[in-house]
Amino acid sequence: MPIPSSHNKVSGAGSSRKLLSALLCFTEERPTWTVADLATELDLSVTSTYRYVALLREVGLLDSAAQNSYRVTDLVLSLARACEAAQAPLAEIGLPIMTRVRDEIDETVLIARRGGDAAYCVDRVESRRPVRLQFDKGQAMSLHAGSLSRILLASMSRSERAAHLAAILPALPSARITMLTDEALDRTQAEGWTESFEEVDEGIWGCAAAITSHGAVVASIGTAAPIFRSDQTRRDRMIELIRGAAAEISELLDQY
User: Pfam families, alphabetically (predicted)?
Assistant: First the structure.
């Protein structure tokens, strides 16, 4: 079925919101949509939805995909790059602080940021004693496992957390579920730091603290070390350094 001409103009604030809502339906989990499915999702008529799709195609944000469906185009990458450019240079600010902490404890130090339903490693300063960690730079990790990710999960609203955890919790062991209750995550959010034992990598302990900018959590910084070389005294020292590093980076970000 051909898309009606975009000369059927969509106007008004309400229509603008619906147009943007249509675009925001396209996610990593649902990259393609038919017009009929979009209409159902947005509670619109098929005719109105065709108009929104036509406008988005006209400006180059949508294109045809298989089986009468549509996808976003590479033009949206410029929006992602604009988002990155507008953000404070987290990695640039954090690197010397991360390096200083790494030099003192000789363990890998990482910074992570949330993107949608995942945590991404923004930067990583390696220990001089090689440690195998799954969280590589640029890699997506689940929000419910590990101290770096859990800080970011805790910063979300209760409703956002519930939506994210709904399909995950039933498959987790009871000990892990205990750390992901609203009460536990609220406590993590209030304290601004947490620790983990073998949640992502076997034999690895980790700790992380929240990095904020103007009062909002924007990232987390943490370290990870083999349990066999991290007694309680050493863990306490690493927690102290990571929390101090988070506070220092947060103070610098507040200047932007």
Answer: HTH_IclR, IclR_C
Domain spanning 87-253, CATH class: alpha beta
Structure-block tokens of residue 194: 């947490």
Percent of the chain surpassing pLDDT 90: 52
Decide: pTM greater than 0.85: no
Task: Name the token pair of 90.
Answer: 């987290």
Q: How far is CA 240 from CA 79, 193, 212, in A?
A: 38, 10, 17
d(CA 114, CA 98): 19
Q: CB under 8 Å to 229, separation ≥6 — which residues? A: none
13-80: CATH topology is: Arc Repressor Mutant, subunit A (1.10.10)
**97 CB neighbour count, 10 Å cutoff:** 20
- Compare 36 and 170 and report the one with higher pLDDT: 36
Contact 155, 217 (CB under 8 A): yes
Integer angstrom CA distances of residue 138 from 104, 122, 131, 193, 232: 25, 6, 18, 22, 31
pLDDT of res. 2? 45
